[in-house]
């Protein structure tokens, strides 16, 4: 299984945290909250489409709403493979942090 990119990791984390309410705007708002940066929708949807192709997330159509002119929201839900990919990159990040703490960098 190829490692997730940092962007994919952040987006998958948002999908898990948002539990059933993960769609473009809520994902973008969550990412701004945790990073302090405003991400474009392209920066969110391009990786979401790749994650969908890899079967790390699945799309779910929400109900049509009047506020959206009768259009449906596309919600995202993490899959078992997505959870495994996220756990794998978290383990890599943990090992990197341990190695950094063992170097002079950890003393700075």
Please provide a written account of the structure:
This protein is an alpha+beta fold and 108 residues long. The protein has a single domain (6-107), classed as Arc Repressor Mutant, subunit A (Orthogonal Bundle), CATH 1.10.10.10. Helices cover 55% and strands 14% of the residues. The chain has 4 helices and 2 strands. It has helices at residues 6-17, 24-35, 41-53, 80-101; strands spanning 57-64, 72-78. Strands 1-2 form a two-stranded antiparallel ribbon. β1 (57-64) and β2 (72-78) form a beta hairpin. It is elongated, with a radius of gyration of 16 Å. It starts with 5 loop residues before the first helix and ends in a 7-residue tail after the last helix.
Key words describing this protein structure:
108 residues; alpha+beta; Arc Repressor Mutant, subunit A; two-stranded antiparallel sheet; 55% helix
Question: What overall geometry do the principal axes of the alpha carbons give?
Answer: elongated
What is the total number of structural domains?
1
Order of strands in the sheet with the most strands?
A: 1-2
What CATH calls the topology is Arc Repressor Mutant, subunit A
Give the termini separation.
34 Å
Kindly provide the radius of gyration, computed on alpha-carbon positions and rounded to a whole number of angstroms.
Answer: 16 Å
Beta strand count: 2
The biggest sheet amounts to:
2 strands, antiparallel
